[in-house]
Structure formats: structure tokens, C-alpha cells
């Protein structure tokens, strides 16, 4: 069957905050930022183009360590260079107008087969939608061979049965694997994610047709929803995984997949070490004569603070400073000047840190209180003087990423709405008094370990100016943060990002009243309808109208107190690592496992 290319639909990205370490840029922030940008352009332009080479190693900054190695773990919470998806971004597309490389997502019309080789939709007999997604997987993919004691898969060939098992396990559906009781879930609810897309009324929503053929039975006519099935990045494992005990499944030694790298060592909170999978099948999109990966060894290491990251990077012990190590303009200029005019510099649009409130609780059920908290935040000061970004880069944040979706409503905000996001402590006090809190109030925010604690400390000082006391509790990890978010009776508020790259399905899960990851407990039917219309739209034009309305409505309701504006941020790749083009983002999420095999080291 002929492969059908769907219209663009945007993939999910991470909603929880990433670590950020900033410094004071001072009064010269804008000037230094302009100089830094010019230096960056010159630096990148001066890099000598080379052909890919094999061998060597690379060390990358990483902070998201955990002790869960089950394939059901979402990519957003663990590196899994040893696992793969059915579909992945097609990095052979070098046109940034087709694929927006400086953002952390990919669209279904740029999706390429990873494990999937061919796929097609079958029309209903009356031509009114789609009924099934047929997928043929590659026949030359093999599981990695581990040390004998931990070698569960024995290096065998991957088949359609493994794909069917993977999805059946996550959905709790599938008679061939004695499933059907409860969906298997660790950090993400794949059952709800695909509800309304695949036909859960069947005992087997996904079935094996042949050794390398399978079919997903669908329950939707919406192209935007069908897209979610492809860009929903599910890690594929094999049926042998079911034979392991829970203890073994949480032991890194058993971590095994079909990916380009084999996990060979791990120290919680310290490092991951990977070695090249000599039996890997995939090739470099841009150099199809080359079998991946290029690097022999990849190390993901913990760096505790900004200064340590810079020092290690300059000395050559660290090959890349990722988006989790934010630098001020002054620090960026220092870094660029120290790298001897041979530093790759890339930029990307970042979502904004936010305090999210549970609107079923007092005082957050009063919109005047929520607006008062927002007016207490000096967004421009927090974005420039604290985070060190250029004022020209400042942009208000709502639901969608402006550069990513075209769904942002910010440019259409009227003066009244803009004023509600403008620093005005006296106006904030007046609103609190009107709402019955003339002396302010106290509350606690629980932030995950990867959040920017210093930025929340800054917000605490802003709130203190209007008589509101915010206590900050730092949680052990993101999973604990999910527990705080998911309990409507827990009086702790929590942190997230807004205005980041997110797709309609993920937004529905987070901000709609019946979404499984519902965040604000406002139970707002108007927002529910807007998000449902965005998620279920039959055409992209219809989807854009609903999405833009949802973006503005989200901003008007003030369910989240935005702590800084959106901004363009920099990331840096060392003098010896090559393989990125067109400003592509080497991201900790979604793109990372696709990029790493395509990077190579030069002397």
C-alpha cells in the first residue's frame, strides 16, 4: 500500500520545568547580547565542514537521572538510547521551512520510519474517514546482545509480535498476551493518550497480521488525532520483557532494545555509559552510505552547577552544554571568546516557567487573586536582569509556542489583557483587597528537582511585596511532582512550563477537565470544548481556529502565574563534535536519541 503523508500536526513535548541557572546581565544585557549573537553567527560560519568519521567518544551534560529502565517509561523522563520508536524525525530534511529544526518536536509529515518501514490508512467503504492503520516493520532489526547473565533477548530478530505486545501492555488490551486487566503505566498514561484514536471496544486494538505486519484498528476520522498515533513515541520492547521480575525490570543491566547504543554502565545521579551497537541497522539520512552510529562511546554525566559546566566544557571534559545549563549573556560571551573561534552555537525558543494553581482551592478559585499574583511578577526584569536574555527576545507566554504552532494569540491581546500581565504591585494589592485578602495569604509551592529554584525565589520576593508569602518545597523528582499535581486535595501548588512546544492531544490531557493529567481543577467547560475542538478537528484550518481561541482563553483565565517571558535561548556544541546543521536542536527530549547516532567527533 502507498504510504500516506498526513498534514502537519505537532508533537508533544515536556511540560514540566527543566533546570535553569542564570546570572545578572546588568544594564549592559542588551548590548552584550547583540555582540554575543554576532559572535555566535561568526563562530558557526567559521566551522570547517568535514565528512563524518567513525570512532571516538563524547560526553554530554545530563541531569535527569532515575532508577526506572522499563520501556514503558516515557522518553521525556529518561534517556533510552537503547530503545526505539516505530516512527522518528526524518533528519534528511534539510529545509528549515519544512522542518523547524530549532524547536523540540517533529510533525507527522516529517515523520520517517524508524522501526516502521511502510504504513498506510485504509478508507471506510463509504470514504468517510479511516478505519485501520496498516504497518510493515523492517525485517533486519535485532535486539542487542547483553552479558550472558542479563541477555534475555539473545540478539534475536524483532518481529511484529513485539510491537503488538508493547502496545497491548500499555493499553491493558490484547488476548495474545493474557492482558486486558489494567493498562501498564509508569509516568505516562498511554491508554488515555490514544483513547478515541484506536478502537478500545475491541479485544485487540492492535493485531499481528504476519511476521512483520500489523494493524491498528482505529476509532476516529480526524486527521489531527490520527497523527497522534504516529508521533506518540512509544518505546518498543519484546515479549521476553514479561518474563522478568519487577526488580529485574528496574535493573539497568537488563535494559535492552534495538537502538544504536548499548547501556554498559550506570551510576544513579552520576552518569550513564553507552557503547556502540555493532549490529545496528540504520543509516545516516544525509550520508546513506554510512551505517550508524559514528561514536564508539557516549557518556551522559551530571554537572552540578553552571560554573562547573562552563569549566568542564572549556577544558574539554564536557563536549556539550545542553538546554539545562542556561547562561546569561555575559557568561555566553565569556564562553564564546574562550573557545578559540571554533564553537558551534544553536538557539531555540524556550517555554516559560510558571506557578500552576489548583482553582478548586481558596484563594486560587478567585480570578482576582490569580491576576494579582501575575501583576506582582515583573516579567521583563525576570527575563532580562535575572535570566540574562535580551529584551528584544521577550515575548508573553500563553498555551502554545508562537514559533512552533502559529496558534499563539499574543499578538491579538488587547490592552486590558496585556495590563494583567504587566508589573503593577499596587494594582495587585488593590485586587487582593477587593477579593477579601487585604493582608495577603500564605501558600506552598512544590517544585520538582529540575525546576529553576532561584527563579521561584525571585517570584517569592515579588509576592512578598504585595503581602503574599510563598513557601518553596523542592521535591525529590518529577514523579513526586506528578503526585502533587494529580491530587486535587493536596494544598501544595506546583511548577510547570507554559508556552512551550505541545500538541493538541497533550494539551487536552493537561488542561481539560477530563484529561488524565488535569492540572488546575477549574472544571471549565468552555476550555474543555476549545481543547476538544483543537484535538478532534477534521482539518488543520479548523484546528488552528480552535487552538488560537484556546490560547487566548488560557491567558485570560490566569490558571498559571507566568514567572518569565518566553525567550530565545542558546545552547553550545564543542569544537570537536559535528553532525548538526541548520540550527538543529540537540534536545534532551524526543530528538536526542535520533541525533546522537548521527554525531561524530573530529580532532
Walk me through this protein's architecture.
- The protein has helices at about 30-45, 160-170, 190-195, 225-230, 245-250, 305-315, 330-340, 365-375, 380-385, 400-405, 415-420, 425-435, 455-465, 480-485, 505-510, 525-535, 540-555, 590-595; strands spanning about 55-60, 85-90, 110-115, 115-125, 130-135, 205-210, 215, 260-265, 270-275, 285, 285-290, 295-300, 320, 345-350, 350-355, 440-445, 470-475, 495-500, 560, 565-575, 575-580, 600.
- The protein contains 18 helices and 22 strands.
- The chain is globular, with a radius of gyration of 24 Å.
- The chain has 2 domains: about 25-295 and about 570-600, Dipeptide-binding Protein, domain 1; about 350-565, Dipeptide-binding Protein, domain 3, CATH 3.10.105.
- Helix 15 (about 505-510) runs antiparallel to helix 16 (about 525-535) and helix 16 (about 525-535) packs antiparallel against helix 17.
- It is an alpha+beta fold and about 600 residues long.
- Strand 10 (about 285) and strand 11 form a beta hairpin.
- The strands form 7 sheets. It has a 5-stranded mixed β-sheet, with helices on both faces. A 4-stranded mixed β-sheet has the order 1-12-9-8, with no helix packed on it. Strands 4-5-7-6 form a 4-stranded antiparallel β-sheet, with helices on one face.
- About 30% of the residues lie in helices and about 20% in strands.
Amino acid at each position: 500500500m502507498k504510504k500516506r503523508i498526513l498534514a502537519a500536526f505537532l508533537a508533544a513535548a515536556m511540560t514540566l520545568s527543566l533546570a535553569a541557572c542564570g546570572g545578572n546581565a546588568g544594564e549592559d544585557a542588551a548590548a552584550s547580547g547583540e555582540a554575543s549573537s554576532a559572535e555566535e553567527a561568526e563562530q558557526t560560519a567559521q566551522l570547517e565542514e568535514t565528512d563524518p568519521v567513525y570512532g571516538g567518544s563524547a560526553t554530554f551534560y545530563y541531569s535527569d537521572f532515575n532508577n526506572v529502565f522499563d520501556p514503558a517509561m516515557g522518553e521525556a523522563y529518561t534517556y533510552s538510547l537503547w530503545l526505539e520508536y516505530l516512527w522518528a524525525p526524518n533528519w534528511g530534511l534539510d529545509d528549515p521551512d519544512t522542518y523547524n529544526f530549532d524547536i523540540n518536536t517533529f510533525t507527522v509529515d516529517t515523520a520517517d520510519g524508524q522501526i516502521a518501514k511502510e504504513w498506510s490508512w485504509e478508507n471506510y467503504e463509504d470514504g468517510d474517514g479511516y478505519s485501520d492503520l496498516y504497518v510493515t516493520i523492517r525485517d533486519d532489526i535485532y535486539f542487542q546482545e547483553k552479558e550472558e547473565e542479563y541477555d534475555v533477548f539473545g540478539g534475536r530478530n524483532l518481529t511484529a509480535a513485539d510491537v503488538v505486545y508493547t502496545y497491548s501492555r500499555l493499553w491493558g488490551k490484547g488476548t495474545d498476551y493474557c492482558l486486558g486487566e489494567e493498562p501498564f503505566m509508569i509516568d505516562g498514561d498511554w491508554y488515555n493518550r490514544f483513547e478515541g484514536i484506536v478502537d478500545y471496544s475491541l479485544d485487540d486494538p492492535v493485531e499481528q497480521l504476519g511476521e512483520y505486519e500489523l494493524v491498528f484498528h482505529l476509532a476516529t476520522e480526524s486527521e489531527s488525532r490520527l497523527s497522534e498515533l504516529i508521533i506518540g513515541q512509544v518505546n518498543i520492547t519484546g515479549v521476553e520483557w514479561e518474563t522478568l521480575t519487577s526488580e529485574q525490570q528496574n535493573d539497568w543491566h537488563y535494559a535492552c532494545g534495538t537502538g544504536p547504543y548499548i547501556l554498559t554502565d550506570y551510576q544513579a545521579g552520576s552518569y550513564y555509559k553507552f557503547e556502540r551497537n555493532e549490529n545496528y541497522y540504520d543509516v545516516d539520512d544525509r550520508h546513506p552510505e554510512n551505517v550508524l552510529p559514528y561514536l564508539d562511546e557516549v557518556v551522559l554525566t551530571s554537572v552540578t552547577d553552571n560554573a562547573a559546566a562552563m569549566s568542564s566544557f572549556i577544558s574539554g571534559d564536557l563536549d556539550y552544554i545542553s538546554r539545562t545549563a542556561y547562561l546569561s549573556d555575559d557568561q555566553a560571551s565569556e564562553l564564546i571568546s574562550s573557545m578559540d573561534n571554533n564553537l558551534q552555537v544553536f538557539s531555540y525558543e524556550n517555554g516559560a516557567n510558571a506557578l500552576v494553581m489548583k482553582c478548586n482551592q481558596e484563594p486560587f478559585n478567585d480570578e482576582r487573586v490569580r491576576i494579582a499574583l501575575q501583576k506582582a511578577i515583573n516579567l521583563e526584569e525576570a527575563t532580562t536582569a535575572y535570566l540574562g536574555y535580551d529584551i528584544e527576545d521577550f515575548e508573553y507566554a500563553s498555551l502554545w509556542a508562537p514559533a512552533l504552532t502559529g496558534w499563539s494569540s499574543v499578538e491579538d491581546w488587547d490592552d486590558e489583557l496585556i495590563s494583567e500581565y504587566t508589573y503593577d504591585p499596587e494594582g495587585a494589592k488593590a485586587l487582593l483587597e477587593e477579593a477579601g485578602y487585604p493582608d495577603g495569604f500564605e501558600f506552598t509551592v512544590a517544585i520538582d528537582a529540575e525546576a529553576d529554584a532561584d527563579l521561584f525565589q525571585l517570584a517569592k520576593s515579588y509576592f512578598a511585596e504585595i503581602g503574599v508569602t510563598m513557601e518553596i518545597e523542592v521535591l525529590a523528582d518529577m514523579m513526586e511532582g506528578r503526585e502533587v499535581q494529580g491530587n486535587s486535595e493536596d494544598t501544595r501548588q506546583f511548577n510547570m512550563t507554559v508556552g512551550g512546544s505541545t500538541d493538541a492531544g497533550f494539551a487536552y490531557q493537561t488542561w481539560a477537565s477530563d484529561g488524565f493529567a488535569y492540572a488546575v481543577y477549574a472544571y471549565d467547560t468552555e476550555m474543555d470544548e476549545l481543547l476538544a475542538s483543537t484535538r478532534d478537528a477534521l482539518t488543520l484550518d479548523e484546528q488552528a481556529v480552535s487552538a488560537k481561541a484556546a490560547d487566548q482563553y488560557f491567558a485570560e483565565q490566569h490558571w498559571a502565574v507566568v514567572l518569565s517571558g518566553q525567550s530565545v535561548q542558546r545552547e553550545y556544541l564543542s569544537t570537536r563534535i559535528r553532525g548538526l546543521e541548520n540550527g538543529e536542536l540537540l534536545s534532551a527530549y524526543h530528538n536526542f536519541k535520533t541525533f546522537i547516532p548521527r554525531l561524530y567527533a573530529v580532532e
